[in-house]
Amino acid sequence: MGYASVLSRDPAQTYRQVDLAGRTANADGPALVQLLYEELCHALRVAAWAAENKKFAVKSERVTRATAILFALEANLDFEKGGEVSTTLARVYAGARKQVIEASLGHDGAQFRQVADTLAEIAEAWRMARAA
C-alpha cells in the first residue's frame, strides 16, 4: 500500500526507492558506502535542477537528503584504521555540507553541481578501489 500511494504521485521516485531497497538488502559495508555516494550525487543534481526551476519543496527535500548522507558518511569514518584519509574525508564532508547549505539559500544550481562533481570523483575512486 505504501508504494501504491507513492506510485500514484511519482512513479520514478517509487522505482528508485524499490531499487535502492533491493540493492541495500545484501550489500556489505563498502557497497553501502558506494550506494551512499550515488544517492548523494543524485540528490545534489536534483537539488540543482529544483533550484533553477523554482521547485522549492523538491530542493528542500534533496538538500535534507544530501546533508543526511554527508553526516552518515562522516559518522562512519574509522579514524583508527583510516588515519589521514579519514581525517581528510571528514574535512571534505564538512566542507561539502557547508557548500550545500549555502547553495540552498539561492536559486543557482551551479554550487550543487560543483559539490556533486567533487564527490563523484571520490565515488569513482572508491568504486575503483573496490574493484581492485
Provide a concise account of the structure shown.
The chain is mostly helical. It is 86% helix and 0% strand.
Q: What does this protein structure show overall?
A:
This protein has six helices and no strands. It has 132 residues and is an all-alpha fold. The longest helix has 26 residues, at 79-104. The model is unreliable at 18-25 (pLDDT under 50). This is Flagellar secretion chaperone FliS. One of its GO terms (biological process) is bacterial-type flagellum-dependent cell motility. Keywords: Bacterial flagellum biogenesis, Cell projection, Chaperone, Cilium, Cytoplasm, Flagellum. Pfam families: FliS.
Mean pLDDT: 84
In sequence order, what are the helices and strands, one letter per element?
A: HHHHHH
**CATH architect. name:** Up-down Bundle
The domain tally reads 1
CA-CA gap between termini? 42 Å
* SS-derived structural category: mainly alpha
Using only C-alpha atoms, the radius of gyration works out to: 16 Å
In terms of DSSP E residues, the strand content is: under 5%
**CATH superfamily annotation:** Flagellar protein FliS
- The residue fraction in helices comes out at over 70%
The total of helices stands at: 6
Q: Characterize the largest beta sheet: strand count, sense, and whether it forms a barrel.
A: none
Q: What is the number of beta strands?
A: 0
Shape: elongated
Regions with pLDDT < 50 over 5+ consecutive residues?
18-25
CATH class category name: Mainly Alpha
Stated plainly, the CATH topology is called Four Helix Bundle (Hemerythrin (Met), subunit A)
